[in-house]
C-alpha cells in the first residue's frame, strides 16, 4: 500500500508541473503587472520601473522565470523557488506571498471543511431515504430540492443568504455575521468567545457553499443506493431471513457508500471553486479572494501559490478517497 | 380433484391459484396466472419452462421477495400456514429457516464486501441464538459439506476470490444453514460453466440429503430435471400446462409444448440421424396474451377451438398427470418428430449465414 | 461437410401456423419510437422541454417583439417595480428589466449551446481514442486530462478572460468549452474501454474496418445516449459558470449583458428593489432546472436497462 501511495504521488508530479507551467504562461501572457507604474501620472522615472521589473524577475524570459519559480536554482536573490519553500516576489506592493497564504489557508480550509462535511452528512442521509422510499412523496420532494440545489448559482444563493442573514439579525434578534471570517476584534478574543465568533461567521457562508455539493452527492447517493437495493445479494440477504432493517444497514448502506466516498473527494475541488465566490460575497480574506485579487494584479507568483495549495489539496483528497475505497471495498487491491 | 398416491399428511407447501401481476407502462404484465402445485416432504419438484414463463416469479412470490409493485393473489401455505400477506418481520422468520432459496447468478448473489464466512454465519445467526464463534464453526462445517476445500481458510475469503462454481456452493451452504424444510433452487446451474454444473448439482444433492429438505428445482434444462426430479411442472406463459411424475411426463407427454421441449433436447444416446426439433416462434407477450390457449400461435396441431377457449388442466392418466390441451387424447404415444418438422434445408441455412456477413450493419444490432 | 457448418441446426424452420406468432408476441416498434415513448412518460421532463422551448423563444424572438432592449432609454422611469409597461420593472439608470433579461438569457443560452458542442466534440473524441488505444496513448491522454482537472477551471477562465479583455459571449463560451471537456472524456473513455471488448468490434475488425472507422462508426454511436445526457449537464453547468464569471467581472462585459451580470448589479438590492435580483436569478435557476430535468428524462428514455414500471 505504501508503494501504491508513493507511485500515485510520483505520477502526480509531472501532472502538477505541467499544470503549473501552463498556468504560469497564461498568467504571464494575460497582462503587464507594471502597466500602472508605466502609465502613472505623474510619470515614474524609468529607473524605478526597471528596478521593480528586476525585483519581480520580469527582465528574464518566461521559461527562465518558471524555472526559477520552481527550483530557485540559477541567478536569483534567494527569495524564489517553490521546491525550497520560497514563493517568490509579489506584484502587490510588499506582500509576502508565503505569509499571506498561510494566514488565508486556515480561513478557507475552515469554510471548505465545514461545507464538505455538512454536505456529505446531510446528502448521505437524504439520498438513502430517497432511495428506500423511491417514488414516494418524500422522495419526490427531496429530489426536487436536489435538482433545485444543482440549478442554483452559488453567487445568487450567497447574496440571498447574506441578505436573509441581515434580515434575520434585524428582525429575529439572531447574531449571524455577514462580513468577514472573524470580527475585527477577533485577535483580542480567547477560548469560547473566539470559538463562537468563528462559528457565527461560518454559518451563512457554509450554508451557501454546502448546497451545490449537497445536491450532487445526494443525487449520487440515491442512485448508488437504488442500484444496490436492486442487486441479487440484497435479495439473498433477505432470503436468508434477515430483517429488512438489518439488510438495509448492514448490506445496502455499507456497499452504497463506497462510490460516494470518491465523489466526496471531488467535492473538495468544487468547494474550492465555490469558495472563491462565497468569499467574495461575504468579504472573507481567504484563498478565494486572494486568487481573484492576484489575477487582477497579474501577480503570477501569487496565482501559482494558490495553484500549488489547491493542487496539493485536491491530489491529497483524491488519494485519501482512493485509499478509503480500498478499505471499504475488498475487491480493490493496491499492488 | 385427481387421484392422489401420497397421503396429505406429508404436504409441505401448497400453492393454490397463485396469480402475480406487474403494472408497467405498457400495461399489466400477467407473469403468473393461477398456478397451483403441491410439494411433499422429501420430494423434488421440477418447474420447467422458457424464460418469462413465470417459473421464477411464482417462487419469489412464495418467498415474499417480489418488488412492492407486484400484485399477488391466491394462496401459498407452508404446512398449512398462509405465507402470502405476512409482514416482513413474520416472513423473515420463515425465510432461510423453513424455506431457503438459491438464485441463478452466483457472481452477484453474494455481497462483495463481506467474507463468505461472515455471510454464512450471518444466515445461522439470523435464526439461531448462538454465540458468534459457534456460528462461524457452523459456517466452516457447511462449507465442508458443499465440498469447498480448506474451509477454515476459505471462510475468510471474499466472494471475488472464488470461482463461479465455488460461489454457488457457498450460496447452497447458506441455503442449508438452518436445515430448511424446503429449498427453492432457481436455475442454480444456468450461469455456470457446463463443466462445473454437475459438481454444483452434486452439492445440491448432498445439501438435500443433509437437511432432508424437499426441493423445488426451477430450470429450463430438461437434462437436469431428468436425473434429479420426482415430479415436474411445465409452465408456459404464466400457467401450468402439464404436470405429473417425471417419467410420465417425459415418456408420455400430452401437451404439444412439452413435446416440443423434449424434441429440442439434444440426446447423447441418439443416432446421428436424430434431428433436434425446434419450436417455431417466441413465447407470447405477457401484456397482450392471445385469446384461447397461449401456445396456440406456435402449436403445430392448432384448431379453431384452441383460439376460442383456453384449455383447463385435464387429468390425462395415472399418478395425477395433468395436461392443458384440448387434444391431449390424440397425443397418446406421440413423438416430437410427429409434430415438429426437424430442420430446414441445408443450402438455405448456409445462404442465410452468407447474407449476414455481407455488410457491417449486423454488429450495430448490439446497441 | 455441410453438417459442420450448421451449429444452430434448423433454427428457422419455415412453417405456416394459423396465426403469425411474431405479430402476436411483440408490437413492432423501432428503437427511436421507444425512446420517444419513454421520454413522453417522464412528465416532468416533458413539461421542462416545453418550458425550455418557451424560454428559448423568449430569448430569441422576444427582443424582436418587445419595445425595449437592454440599453438605457431616457423615457424609461427609474426604479419602477413591475408594471404593465415594464413587466419586470426598471433599473435606476433607466433600463427595462424585461429587455435586459431577454438579452441576458439569449447570451447565456448561446454560451451554453456553444460549450455543449465544444465539450462533447472534444471530450467524446478524446475519450474514445484514449479508451480505444489504451496503453501508453491512454496514459498520456489521461494525464493531460489530469493536468486540466488539477487547474481549477476558475483560474483558467479568470486568467484567459483577463487575457481577452472586452470579452464577448463567444470568447467566454470558447474558454469554458476548451477547458470543460474533461468529464465527458472520462465518461466516454470508461464506456469505450468496455465496448471495445465486445464482439461487434471484433466482427467489424474482421471485416477489415480501420481504427478510425471502428471508433467513429461503431464505438461512438454506442455511447451516444451517455453523450447526449452528458451534454445536457454540460449546458447546465456552462450556464452556471458563465453566470459566475460575469458575476466576478471576468465574463461578458457592459454594455452587453448576461444574467450573471444582472444579478451582480442587483446584489445589494435584494430587499430594496427585489425585482432586479430575483427575476434574473429565477431565470438562471429555471433554465438550469429545465435542462437538468430534460437530461433526466433523456437518461431514463435512453437507458435500455430502465424497467418500465409504473410509478
Describe the fold and architecture.
- The complex is a heterotrimer of chains A (335), B (367) and C (311).
- Chain A is 74% helix and 1% strand.
- Chain A has helices at residues 2-30, 35-38, 46-55, 62-71, 97-132, 137-151, 154-171, 191-229, 232-239, 244-282, 287-296, 300-328; strands at 80-81, 86-87.
- By secondary structure, chain A is mainly alpha-helical.
- A two-stranded antiparallel ribbon of chain A has the order 1-2.
- The radius of gyration of chain A is 24 Å and the shape is globular.
- By secondary structure, chain B is of the alpha/beta class.
- Chain B has two domains: 11-41 and 63-233, Rossmann fold (3-Layer(aba) Sandwich); 252-279 and 291-362, no CATH class.
- In chain B, the strands form two sheets. In chain B, strands 6-7-8-3-9-10-12-11 form an eight-stranded mixed β-sheet, with helices on both faces. Chain B has a four-stranded antiparallel β-sheet with strand order 2-1-4-5.
- Chain B is globular, with a radius of gyration of 22 Å.
- Chain C has a single domain (29-310), classed as Orthogonal Bundle (MetI-like fold).
- In chain C, 67% of the residues lie in helices and 0% in strands.
- Chain C contains 14 helices and no strands.
Fill in the keyword field for this structure.
heterotrimer; A: 335 residues; mainly alpha; MetI-like fold; 2 domains; two-stranded antiparallel ribbon; 12 helices; 2 strands; globular; C: 311 residues; 14 helices; 0% strand; disordered N terminus; disordered C terminus
Amino acid at each position: 500500500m505504501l508503494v501504491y501511495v508513493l507511485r500515485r504521488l510520483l505520477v502526480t508530479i509531472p501532472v502538477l508541473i505541467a499544470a503549473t507551467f501552463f498556468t504560469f504562461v497564461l498568467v504571464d501572457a494575460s497582462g503587464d503587472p507594471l502597466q500602472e507604474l508605466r502609465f502613472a501620472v505623474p510619470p515614474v522615472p524609468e529607473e524605478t520601473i526597471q528596478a521593480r521589473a528586476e525585483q519581480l524577475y520580469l527582465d528574464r524570459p518566461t521559461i527562465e522565470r518558471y524555472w526559477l519559480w520552481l527550483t530557485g536554482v540559477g541567478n536569483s536573490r534567494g527569495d524564489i523557488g517553490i521546491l525550497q519553500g520560497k514563493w517568490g516576489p509579489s506584484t502587490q506592493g510588499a506582500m509576502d506571498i508565503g505569509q499571506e497564504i498561510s494566514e488565508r489557508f486556515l480561513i478557507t480550509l475552515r469554510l471548505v471543511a465545514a461545507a464538505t462535511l455538512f454536505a456529505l452528512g446531510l446528502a448521505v442521509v437524504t439520498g438513502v431515504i430517497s432511495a428506500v422510499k423511491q417514488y414516494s412523496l418524500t422522495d419526490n420532494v427531496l429530489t426536487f430540492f436536489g435538482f433545485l440545489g444543482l440549478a442554483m448559482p452559488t453567487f445568487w444563493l450567497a447574496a440571498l443568504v447574506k441578505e436573509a442573514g441581515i434580515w434575520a439579525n434585524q428582525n429575529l434578534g439572531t447574531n449571524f455575521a455577514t462580513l468577514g471570517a472573524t470580527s475585527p476584534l477577533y485577535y483580542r478574543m480567547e477560548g469560547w468567545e473566539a470559538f463562537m465568533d468563528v462559528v457565527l461567521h461560518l454559518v451563512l457562508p457554509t450554508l451557501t457553499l454546502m448546497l451545490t455539493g449537497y445536491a450532487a452527492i445526494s443525487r449520487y447517493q440515491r442512485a448508488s443506493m437504488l442500484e444496490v437495493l436492486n442487486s441479487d445479494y440484497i435479495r439473498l440477504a433477505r432470503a436468508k431471513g434477515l430483517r429488512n432493517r438489518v439488510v438495509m444497514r448492514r448490506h445496502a448502506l455499507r456497499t452504497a457508500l463506497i462510490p460516494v466516498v470518491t465523489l466526496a473527494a471531488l467535492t473538495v475541488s468544487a468547494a474550492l471553486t465555490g469558495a472563491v465566490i462565497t468569499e467574495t460575497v461575504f468579504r472573507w480574506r481567504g484563498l478565494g479572494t486572494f486568487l481573484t485579487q492576484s489575477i487582477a494584479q497579474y501577480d503570477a507568483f501569487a496565482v501559482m501559490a494558490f495553484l500549488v495549495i489547491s493542487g496539493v489539496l485536491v491530489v491529497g483528497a483524491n488519494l485519501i478517497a482512493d485509499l478509503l475505497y480500498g478499505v471499504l471495498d475488498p475487491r480493490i487491491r493496491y499492488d | 380433484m385427481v387421484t392422489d398416491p401420497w397421503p396429505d399428511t406429508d404436504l409441505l407447501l401448497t400453492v393454490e391459484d397463485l396469480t402475480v401481476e406487474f403494472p408497467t407502462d405498457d400495461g399489466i404484465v400477467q407473469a403468473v396466472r393461477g398456478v397451483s402445485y403441491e410439494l411433499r416432504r422429501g420430494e423434488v419438484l421440477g418447474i420447467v419452462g422458457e424464460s418469462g414463463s413465470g417459473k421464477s416469479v411464482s417462487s419469489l412470490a412464495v418467498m415474499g421477495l417480489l418488488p412492492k409493485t407486484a400484485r399477488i393473489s391466491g394462496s401459498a401455505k407452508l404446512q398449512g400456514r398462509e405465507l402470502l400477506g405476512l409482514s416482513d418481520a413474520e416472513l423473515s422468520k420463515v425465510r432461510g429457516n423453513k424455506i431457503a432459496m438459491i438464485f441463478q447468478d452466483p457472481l452477484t448473489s453474494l455481497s462483495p464486501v463481506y467474507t463468505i464466512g461472515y455471510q454464512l454465519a450471518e444466515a445461522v445467526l439470523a435464526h439461531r441464538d448462538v454465540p458468534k464463534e459457534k456460528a462461524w464453526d457452523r459456517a466452516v462445517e457447511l462449507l465442508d459439506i458443499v465440498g469447498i476445500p480448506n474451509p477454515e481458510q476459505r471462510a475468510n475469503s471474499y466472494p471475488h476470490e472464488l470461482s463461479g462454481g465455488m460461489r454457488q456452493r457457498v450460496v447452497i451452504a447458506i441455503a442449508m444453514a438452518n436445515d430448511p424444510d424446503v429449498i427453492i433452487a432457481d436455475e442454480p446451474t444456468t450461469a455456470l460453466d457446463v463443466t462445473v454444473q454437475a459438481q454444483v448439482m452434486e452439492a445440491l444433492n448432498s445439501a438435500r440429503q443433509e437437511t432432508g429438505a424437499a426441493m423445488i428445482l426451477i430450470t429450463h434444462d430438461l437434462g437436469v430435471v431428468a436425473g434429479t426430479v420426482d415430479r415436474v411442472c411445465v409452465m408456459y406463459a404464466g400457467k401450468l400446462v402439464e404436470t405429473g411424475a417425471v417419467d410420465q411426463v417425459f415418456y408420455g407427454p400430452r401437451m404439444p409444448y412439452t413435446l416440443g421441449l423434449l424434441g429440442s433436447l439434444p440426446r447423447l444416446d441418439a443416432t446421428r440421424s436424430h434431428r433436434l426439433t425446434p419450436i417455431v416462434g417466441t413465447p407470447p407477450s405477457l401484456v397482450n396474451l392471445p385469446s384461447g390457449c397461449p401456445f396456440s400461435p406456435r402449436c403445430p396441431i392448432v384448431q379453431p377451438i384452441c383460439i376460442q377457449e383456453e384449455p383447463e388442466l385435464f387429468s390425462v392418466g395415472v399418478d395425477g398427470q395433468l395436461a392443458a390441451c384440448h387434444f391431449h387424447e390424440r397425443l397418446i404415444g406421440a413423438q416430437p418428430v410427429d409434430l415438429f418438422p426437424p430442420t430446414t434445408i441445408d443450402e438455405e441455412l448456409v445462404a442465410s449465414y452468407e447474407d449476414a456477413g455481407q455488410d457491417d450493419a449486423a454488429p450495430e444490432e448490439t446497441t | 461437410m455441410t453438417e459442420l457448418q450448421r451449429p444452430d441446426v434448423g433454427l428457422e424452420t419455415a412453417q405456416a401456423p394459423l396465426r403469425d406468432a411474431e405479430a402476436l408476441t411483440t408490437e413492432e416498434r423501432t428503437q427511436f419510437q421507444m425512446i420517444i415513448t419513454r421520454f413522453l412518460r417522464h412528465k416532468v421532463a416533458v413539461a421542462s422541454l416545453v418550458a425550455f422551448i418557451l424560454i428559448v423563444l423568449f430569448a430569441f424572438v422576444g427582443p424582436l417583439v418587445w419595445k425595449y432592449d437592454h440599453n438605457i432609454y431616457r423615457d424609461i422611469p427609474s426604479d419602477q417595480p413591475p408594471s404593465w409597461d415594464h413587466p419586470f420593472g426598471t433599473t435606476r439608470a433607466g433600463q427595462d428589466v424585461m429587455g435586459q433579461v431577454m438579452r441576458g438569457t439569449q447570451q447565456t443560452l448561446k454560451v451554453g449551446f456553444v460549450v455543449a458542442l465544444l465539450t462533447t466534440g472534444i471530450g467524446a473524441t478524446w475519450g474514445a481514442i484514449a479508451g480505444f488505444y489504451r496503453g501508453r496513448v491512454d496514459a498520456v491522454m489521461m494525464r493531460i486530462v489530469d493536468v486540466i482537472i488539477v487547474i481549477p477551471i476558475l483560474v483558467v477562465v479568470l486568467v484567459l478572460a483577463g487575457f481577452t479583455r472586452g470579452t464577448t459571449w463567444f470568447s467566454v463560451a470558447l474558454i469554458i468549452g476548451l477547458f470543460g471537456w474533461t468529464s465527458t472524456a472520462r465518461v466516454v473513455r470508461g464506456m469505450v474501454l468496455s465496448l471495445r471488448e465486445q464482439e461487434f468490434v471484433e466482427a467489424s475488425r474482421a471485416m477489415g474496418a480501420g481504427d478510425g472507422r471502428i471508433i467513429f462508426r461503431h464505438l461512438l454511436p454506442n455511447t451516444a445516449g451517455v453523450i447526449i445526457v452528458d451534454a445536457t449537464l454540460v449546458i447546465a453547468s456552462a450556464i452556471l459558470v458563465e453566470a459566475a464569471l460575469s458575476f466576478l467581472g471576468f465574463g461578458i462585459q457592459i454594455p452587453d449583458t448576461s444574467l450573471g451580470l444582472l444579478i451582480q448589479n442587483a446584489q445589494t438590492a435584494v430587499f430594496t428593489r427585489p425585482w432586479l435580483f430575483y427575476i434574473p436569478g429565477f431565470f438562471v435557476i429555471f433554465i438550469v432546472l429545465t435542462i437538468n430535468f430534460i437530461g433526466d428524462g433523456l437518461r431514463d428514455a435512453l437507458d435500455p436497462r430502465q424497467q418500465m414500471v409504473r410509478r
